[in-house]
Design brief:
This protein has 155 residues and is mostly helical. The protein is built from 5 helices and no strands. The longest helix has 36 residues. It starts with a helix and ends with a helix.
Length: 155
Amino acid sequence: MLLLLQLLNMAVNLILSCSMGVFIAVGFVFFLIGFHDAKFSELIKGKDARRDLIKIFSTLGILLVILLISFESARTTGILAFTSELAPESARQNGMKLLILGIFQAAWLLISLKWLLPLVFNPVELNKKQTLVVISAPLLNLLCGLLTLQRFELF
């Protein structure tokens, strides 16, 4: 059962990290297209351009943090799932790391989707599939971390 949860956790976090990577790449391309005629000195001096640059790079930064957390969660879960003969101390460290990543991922997704991104966009509307991925990623991190700690009787 733990292996199935770990595989599901890896799949959800990989979906989340790949989609964030695509969003960052597309956002950067649109940034380059939008400011292709402007010179750098004009961008620094223009008040509206600076405001737009801050919005663009803050959005890309928020997405980058989500990408890094999701990728590290998938990597840590892969270590727990596919490493045979894992020492109990190493399993405990990876389980705690997964638990902390789950807490941080849940907090960051809540903060970014409810407060940070609506400052740049209108309220962020997610469909059912997107909501399922966003909610299940931190929950599966927490669950896999807790079950790993319980499996090695360290919790």
